[in-house]
Fold each of these.
Amino acid sequence: MASRSCTFVEILLAVILPPLGVFLRYGCCSMEFLICLLLTILGYIPGIIYAVYVLVAHGSASEESGRDYDALG
């Protein structure tokens, strides 16, 4: 249940500021973050679309690997 609430917060932040939601999941030097940052600079809507896609589509892959935010709480 905690991973769903973390995903919800990440998506909410991705709608407000797209690179921030991706940064929380992947870090600042990942390819996903850099693509999201570039798309957000070029246009706000493409940045939102990419950020939500990355968080939702790749979210199930990262949950399968066992990575979650329980250690931070």
Amino acid sequence: MNFVRCRLFIGSLLGQRNRQVTESWSHAGMCTKPQEVKAEPPPAAPAHAPRPGFKIPGYSPSPLDKKMLIWSGRFKSQDQIPETVSFEMIDAARNKVRVKACYVMIAVTIGACALMVVLGKRAAGRHESLTGHNLEKKAKWREELAQEAEAAVALSKKAQ
């Protein structure tokens, strides 16, 4: 199947390359005269006032951006945040919050690992293990199967 798929891919790839080469040649195949391009007339000027070619630098932060600016330490309160701030400032605040979030996740992971070690040592002190727990569960299942088998045999003897 892979061989057929590979052959189909190579065939389509070569077919596309062949099509690109033939489309780039002229119809006769030997014409070297450059094609003349007609110049389009420039578009008419709009009737309304022209817009400036620049934009006032700034970005109005969303409520989440404002919280990130405060969490990153750029501003002390939301009252101090201006209506427009530079995109670089928002980007720097987001990056700082992202790094802080990563540090928090690292700390939580290390704390969870330490908790698992403590809980595992307590279980070992009580002589509990997964192996013992699994063996007890399987023994219980065997007992239940044996009781069901005895009950089935007793019912079949009564029926006779």
